[in-house]
Structure formats: structure tokens, C-alpha cells
Design brief:
Number of strands: 4
Helix content: 55-70%
Order of helices and strands: HHHHHHHEEHHHHEEHH
CATH architecture: Up-down Bundle
């Protein structure tokens, strides 16, 4: 068996590995309820006014939530270019499907109310459902495959410092698209899908009144229990098979289970704010657990006895990481303050009876954020 050299990670590399994890936490927590609401559009929204109210809860925030994904991708490209290159070349098809779904979903949000035709709105509603369903499923598949590890082919590349691989070579993805559709990854996809749907239902309970809120409350325990079952299977499978024997990652795994159950209990008591907080914390803890299992790799080899792509070999130079750190220190508080202000301004609950009659003329003057 090949004896792998120890991986030494610098403080800057560790900082940016953690910051990228934080960006994914923000994305899953904020965009997660977006996906959930989009998937539930035809389930909870029985009338056009109800569906319009559901879309309006997302109107002021959905595009801002997607910024977390753009930032996570940009930070990965700048801080860990080898990780970015390997990930996007190996996972090209699923990431392309996610991109197409996000474009379709964004266009649907903007165009569904530009015409009063019921067929027009129905077609765009289908686009919202599909554009929410695919990313909610495929992000789980992608992250599960990253944690599980992939098949690497070794391609000679000279002068890659800190690369824990065969000297003079750099790992590239050597599998196929169908290798990504393994049982573990599919369980991960269903897990994120159910977690996001539950998260979205809790968000609707928090942001709406009337029949929408009642239906969302009724749905949370049903989907939430199914999500809990899949999440337990997925996180236990991850911990036992792919954590590399780390014991500390049990902490976020167990805390995630407790927070999810508490969140479901808060929803049953109709403490909507606390239910949403515990749901969000659960998603954050799950991401922490998965990144903890990855460390010190960014893309492990599926054969753990063989070299994969570790943090030192994937990272940029210390100078690049230093400049990025200063930019992050300046810009991150500004972005967080602005997004917090947006949520505060649009904090009031909505109901179907607040929506103008959709059959009277065009809704161009209303817009998605109204």
C-alpha cells in the first residue's frame, strides 16, 4: 500500500478553506428556502393569488441569495484554482444542469407576471418548480461525491508546489458522469431536496398568513420527518465511511440531528421564527460536518490509499491569499449589513388577499417583488 505523505496546511489556506465553507453555509441556508418555496408552489398555492403571494415572499431576496453561490465559486477559483478546475471539469454535466435550471428559474420569476394569461403563468410556474427541484437535488449529489471521493487520472504537470501526489503529476477527474450517480450520492441528493423543501415550508409559515401558512404548517412535519430519516442515513454514512476516522465531526452531525428535531417541535408550537432558526442552524451544521470530513483534502481519491487533491496542492500563492483576506475583511461586513437590511425592510407577512386580482389586465406594474 502506498504511504501518503502528511499534508501540511498553512494558516491562510486553512482560513480560506473555512471561509468557503461559510459561503456554502450562507448559500444553503438562504437559497435553500428559495428552492423549497419554488418546489412547493403548486402544492401549497391552490389559486393564482396564493401562488403569487408565495412568489412575492421571495421577490426582494432571491437574487441576493444567489450571490452567495457566485461568491463561493469566485472564492474557490481565486483561493483554490486547482480545486475549481478539477471540480468543474469532472462535474461538468451536473453543474451545467444546475446553471441552466438557475437561469430558467430567474427568468420565470421575472416573467410570470408580465401577462395576465393563465396559461402563460402556469408555464412559468412549471419553470420555477423545475428550476428549483434540479439544484436542490443536484447540489446534494455533487457534495456527496466530493466527500466520497472521485476517481483520479494522473496527468504530468511540472512544478505544482505542495501537491500530495506522485511527483511531477497532478490529479484530474478520471471518472464518468454515471460514476457520480452512485447510491451514496443519490441519498445525498434526496437529503438536500427534502431539507430544502422543509426549510421552504417553514419560511412560508414565517412569512405568510391565512391558508398558505396553514398548509405550510401542515406540510412541515410530513416532509420534515422524511428529511430527518434521509439526513440521519446520509450523515451517519458519511461519518462512518468517509470521515477518515475523525471524531470531532460527530459533534456537528449529532447537533444537526438535535436542532432539526427542535425545529420541528417549534413549528408544531407555531413558533415560526425559532423553527426557521433551528432549520437554518441544521443546514449550517451539516455543511460544517461535510467540510470537516473533507479536510485536509478538497477532493479525495475514492481509493483512500491513493493520492487525491489536498488543500496545499490546490491553493493559490500566499500573496494571493493575503490580498483576498484583506478584501474579504473590508467587503464582507458591508454585504452582510446590506442583506440584513433587505430582510428587515421586507419582514412583514403576506397573504393571498393582499394580491391584486390577476385577471384584471397585465401585472406589469406589480412586479415580482411587490
Amino acid at each position: 500500500m502506498l504511504s501518503l505523505p502528511p499534508v501540511e496546511v498553512s494558516n491562510l489556506q486553512l482560513l480560506w478553506f473555512c471561509l468557503i465553507a461559510v459561503l456554502w453555509i450562507g448559500y444553503f441556508v438562504l437559497e435553500g428556502f428559495d428552492y423549497g418555496v419554488g418546489i412547493l408552489l403548486p402544492v401549497i398555492g391552490k389559486t393564482e393569488a396564493e401562488r403569487r403571494a408565495m412568489v412575492t415572499t421571495l421577490g426582494p431576496v432571491w437574487d441576493g441569495n444567489e450571490v452567495w453561490l457566485l461568491t463561493a465559486g469566485g472564492a474557490t477559483f481565486a483561493a483554490f484554482p486547482q480545486w475549481y478546475a478539477t471540480l468543474f471539469s469532472g462535474f461538468y454535466l451536473p453543474l451545467l444542469l444546475i446553471l441552466v435550471a438557475l437561469i430558467l428559474r430567474g427568468v420565470a420569476f421575472e416573467y410570470r407576471s408580465k401577462h395576465s394569461s393563465a396559461k402563460w403563468r402556469r408555464n412559468w410556474d412549471i419553470a420555477i418548480v423545475v428550476g428549483s427541484f434540479l439544484p436542490a437535488l443536484l447540489w446534494g449529489v455533487a457534495f456527496a461525491n466530493i466527500v466520497r471521493g472521485v476517481t483520479f487520472a494522473m496527468t504530468p504537470i511540472a512544478g505544482v508546489p505542495g501537491q500530495p501526489s506522485i511527483p511531477g503529476e497532478s490529479p484530474i477527474y478520471g471518472g464518468t458522469f454515471f460514476d457520480l450517480l452512485n447510491p451514496y450520492a443519490l441519498v445525498g441528493g434526496v437529503t438536500t431536496l427534502l431539507l430544502f423543501v422543509t426549510h421552504g415550508a417553514i419560511f412560508l409559515s414565517l412569512k405568510t398568513n391565512g391558508t398558505i401558512r396553514e398548509r405550510a404548517h401542515a406540510l412541515v412535519p410530513k416532509v420534515g420527518v422524511a428529511a430527518a430519516v434521509f439526513a440521519v442515513v446520509f450523515l451517519l454514512w458519511s461519518q462512518l465511511a468517509y470521515s477518515g476516522g475523525k471524531m470531532w465531526t460527530w459533534v456537528p452531525v449529532l447537533l444537526a440531528a438535535v436542532c432539526w428535531l427542535v425545529g420541528l417541535g417549534m413549528d408544531r408550537l407555531k413558533r415560526d421564527g425559532w423553527a426557521f432558526v433551528f432549520s437554518a442552524v441544521t443546514l449550517g451544521l451539516a455543511v460544517i460536518a461535510l467540510f470537516g470530513m473533507l479536510f485536509p483534502f478538497v477532493m479525495p481519491n475514492i481509493d483512500r490509499a491513493m493520492p487525491g487533491l489536498a488543500i496545499p496542492g490546490a491553493s493559490s500563492t500566499p500573496y494571493t491569499l493575503t490580498v483576498m483576506t484583506w478584501v474579504a475583511l473590508i467587503m464582507t461586513p458591508i454585504v452582510l449589513c446590506y442583506q440584513s437590511w433587505t430582510y428587515w425592510v421586507f419582514r412583514k407577512r403576506l397573504s393571498a388577499d393582499m394580491i391584486p386580482d390577476p385577471e384584471v389586465g397585465s401585472l406589469d406594474h406589480v412586479g415580482v417583488g411587490s
